[in-house]
Amino acid sequence: MLPDKRGYFGAYGGRFVPETLMPALEELTQAYQQAQQDAAFQREVSYYLKHYVGRPSPVYRAAALSKKIGGADIYLKREDLNHTGAHKINNTVGQLLLARRMGKKRIVAETGAGQHGVATATVAALLGLQCVVYMGEEDIYRQSPNVFRMRLLGAEVVKVSSGSGTLKDAMNEAMRDWVTNVRNTFYVIGSVAGPHPYPVMVRNFQAIIGEEAREQMLAQRGALPDCVVACVGGGSNAMGIFYHFLPLQEVKLVGVEAGGLGLHTEQHAATLNAGRPGVLHGAYSYLLQDVAGQVRPVHSISAGLDYPGVGPEHSYLKDSGRVQYITATDEEALEAFHLLARTEGILPALESSHALAGAIKLAAQMNKQQSILVCLSGRGDKDVPTVAKTMGVELI
């Protein structure tokens, strides 16, 4: 069972952090292990997922989209219908209940697209915890509706202007805050990244996506999907839906990275397709870096995928060949966004639009008796200003 006791998925993972954080990570590891074995904690998480988040999220057969493409049947796991509009809240419910159990009164988080920040601010308000969210200046501009939502929920949003002003820089600042205030502060990482135990803890809190989806596909279609597709930035929604399908070799698993303006440019965020192993944010994993080993600037139209690293378990799954990682460009993601809107009446997040773009390409190569399950990780309301800009439309 991976990770091992040191937090490694094969060669990837581990803890590469300042000495001052090691006691905090040990405290977190022990608290999480005890909580996993505590039936009362598990019942508490399940209660909030059912009655507050609205789980189980449905699986929906996108018949009109499938007919338009003319290949395999496409099904959507509707994480966009969760409270706050994305899969992120599955993890924040778990981590903030754990923070309260540990007696931590102050929460720090980082966010790119804002969905993790909104989910953290939401659960912090619910549990009466102080919340500080770090967000890159560029992402604050791109995701202004989510910034306002976080502030309405009582969170302090701290603008990060260093570096490229995106998720990587926000994560740097959140970790600095945690190092400074580690005694009373809990750091809620939003993806399957960071030092051990975050990758396994976030994966386990998100694994309910795949657990539900596997049962729902069997009940609705009478068979497992032939293929499961999810977008990959840090990779939390993908690990969430992949996890319970990993032992089922008959199910193909595909992760879709942000191809940005194309892999022939350096304007993309395709870490697994164009990176090489290195250390970022406390873990050893694939990483986009220049010839000198410095972290390379990245680009994606989706703020949530605009990250130069990836969760270490994805690196292991790439090397093992169990998961295939492909890319979708900004243009392909936008086409998928518009196609789903017009065929099914659903506005997907731009992150999810990358998964859809990958699924559309795969479906066209498959027959009508086959099926693809796509993780629709979030709703697209937050991305309407970005999409409008690409269309040359000025919103009033």
UniProtKB/TrEMBL annotation:
It is an enzyme of class 4 (lyase). Residues 54-378 form the Tryptophan synthase beta chain-like PALP domain. One of its GO terms (cellular component) is cytoplasm. Its cofactor is pyridoxal 5'-phosphate. It comes from the Bacteria. One of its GO terms (molecular function) is tryptophan synthase activity. Its EC number is 4.2.1.20. The modification N6-(pyridoxal phosphate)lysine is found at residue 88. Pathway: Amino-acid biosynthesis; L-tryptophan biosynthesis; L-tryptophan from chorismate: step 5/5. Keywords: Amino-acid biosynthesis, Aromatic amino acid biosynthesis, Lyase, Pyridoxal phosphate, Tryptophan biosynthesis. Pfam families: PALP. It catalyses: (1S,2R)-1-C-(indol-3-yl)glycerol 3-phosphate + L-serine = D-glyceraldehyde 3-phosphate + L-tryptophan + H2O. Tetramer of two alpha and two beta chains. The beta subunit is responsible for the synthesis of L-tryptophan from indole and L-serine. Belongs to the TrpB family. This is Tryptophan synthase beta chain. The lineage of its organism: Bacteria, Bacillati, Bacillota, Clostridia, Eubacteriales. The gene is trpB.
